[in-house]
Amino acid sequence: MNIVTLWQHEFIQNAFLAGGCVAIAAALVGYFLILRAQTFAGEALTDIGFTGATGAALLGLSPLPGMLVLSLLAAFIIGLLGERLRGRDIEIGMVLSFALGLGVLFLSLYASSSGSHASAGVGILFGSILSVSREDVWLSLACTLGCSLALLILYRPLLFASIDPEVAAARGVPVRLLSVLFLLLLALATAISVLVIGVLLVFALLVAPAAAAGRLSSSPVGALLLATLLGLGCTWGGLLIAFLGPGQRLPASFCIATLATCCYAGASLIAHLRQRRAPRVPAQPAHPCKGRRTAA
After folding, report:
1. 114-134 pLDDT, tens per residue?
2. Would you call 204 exposed, middle or buried from its count of C-beta atoms within 10 A (0-12, 13-18, 19+)?
3. How many Cβ atoms are within 10 Å of 115's Cβ, its own excluded?
4. 103 and 212 Cβ atoms separated by less than 8 Å
5. pLDDT per residue over 163-195, tens digit each?
6. With the CA atoms of 90, 95, 100 and 102 taken in that order, what torsion angle do they form, in degrees rounded to the nearest 10?
7. Are 52 and 67 in contact (CB under 8 A)?
């Protein structure tokens, strides 16, 4: 099977279209996620979103809306609490553990009531790109356009607040409001990323392309564009390897996560080689009169 005949199947079209939308949203949000050092927030929203997805499956709904609702609600609460979450690692860990346990309970109840072998849970955990419907594609496109438009509007104040929040607050930038809005965008990007790569591997798309772009470009705009291109390359490349690879078909989420990891490793190597080849500025000798006190 070649790529021309592959594209004739509707489920393949849905996979590439949804994967492209997810890659763009994850790359754009992921850049600010790393810049703001909030990767733990992304992990928390993923764990809580898993509970929403399994709860929606138990109610006979699509997992994506359930994950969206609960992730957005959790992001709003985390954003409002703000600095009050610092130093409460035990409480946060307990809440996340309870959320995961609740998700496992919902998944067990769903498997018992439907008589399935938890195939929905496997899709949520590891991604189910082949089961993406055209409705999911439209929803992913709407979420991606919403994330992109919001980041375009908030770009300058969000960048300022991410680099130096204290100075930004002193200049009148609404740091708390921006934090809440960004967490809502993060929840949106995390929820739709589960369509392609699953809960357990969602960080591969959120972090790896953005981190690799940050290693290769010092310009925020350049890093955002490069992160988008790398995210699309990892997603579409992983899908091509999964569908056209020799032998037994590999899971698409595995291929995407592997390419994303290799992408970050390659960017780190290039950055290291650049640093070694950069000319070193010799240290200036101390002035002979420096530190001496002149006579009155």
Report:
1. 655 455 556 666 667 777 778
2. buried
3. 6
4. no
5. 888 888 888 888 888 888 888 888 888 887 776
6. 140
7. yes
* Residue from 287, 7, 13, 3 nearest 133 by CA: 13
Cβ proximity of 235 and 196 under 8 Å: yes
Distance CA 46, CA 38 (A): 13
Query: If you average pLDDT over residues 96-116, what whole number do you get?
Result: 73
Task: Provide the 10 A C-beta neighbour count for residue 291.
Answer: 7
CB under 8 Å to 238, separation ≥6 — which residues?
252, 253, 254, 255, 256, 257, 258, 259
Record the pTM: 0.79
The structure tokens listed for 104 are 């496992």
Paired tokens of 155: 């770009």
Around Cβ 251, how many Cβ atoms within 10 Å?
A: 17
- What is the DSSP secondary-structure string of 183-204? HHHHHHHHHHHHHHH-STTHHH
**Alpha helices (H) in the chain, listed in sequence order:** 3-6, 10-35, 39-58, 63-81, 89-114, 119-126, 134-163, 165-170, 175-197, 202-206, 208-216, 220-244, 252-277
| Cβ(267)–Cβ(216) below 8 Å | yes
Under the banding of pLDDT at 50, 70 and 90, the label for residue 89 is: low
Distance of alpha carbon 17 from its chain centroid, rounded?
Answer: 18
Give the pair of three-digit tokens for residue 134: 């055209």
